[in-house]
Input
Amino acid sequence: MTHPRAAAGTLVALDVDGTLMTYDGVLSAAVRDAVGALRDAGAHVVLATGRGVRSAVPVALDLGLTTGWVVCSNGAVTARLDPARPEGYEVTETITFDPEPALRVLQLELPDALFAVEDLGRGFRVSRPFPDAELTGDQRVMPFDELVAQPATRVVVRDPGSTPEEFRALVERVGLHQVSYAVGWSAWLDLTPGGVSKASALEELRRELGVEPFATVALGDGGNDVEMLRWAARGVAMGHAPEHVRAAADEVCGTIADDGAVAVLRSIGRSGL
Output
């Protein structure tokens, strides 16, 4: 059971997909209860996700988080939950970059790939439609030249014919300067502004909330969680995470299949973290 006096004031940063939620979109009752207990104990529970704000906020609400903060688009967008607003949130920070240089290079290397540029609060502008359920919100198909013409908070590159290992090798070979990137479980590449990550957004939030550096916990499972796990005083990787993600953490918990996040959430507060 969470100890309210110890948990109060702790910043708990939680990845969503593969950490709190199964890959087919299921949140267990045990996860909801554990998150609710931390919220009630006075912890700052912050979802930190690659999802756009439009798909991150419904998860927060499903977890009973109606106030507080969400870090979206791998750190490029921060929003304050606000039940008084029709959409349930207010975007307070956006960081953009020029996607054209990186996408021109990747298009030459991956002529059959799908490209998506985040359209904040709406969905994505895409080169071709993505498979069902891979992107949330509206998809507007447009020519590549138009796709790369506007500043972006997040870009997704998807090549069903490649593997994650081939994607990592490609990124190392071509060099993607002025952007941050993370390779997903499949041949999925997330691009965000250079120097921006979940960790950079969480550090800004930590300072704004007045949370001490030692009172930070992070839990995640993907390549886009590595910086966040290193940033937190207690970084916990899911048991099914890739080896390089587990190596970045202070500890490893159970997998998503056995609700591994629950034991971590329940443990917060027993020793202040």
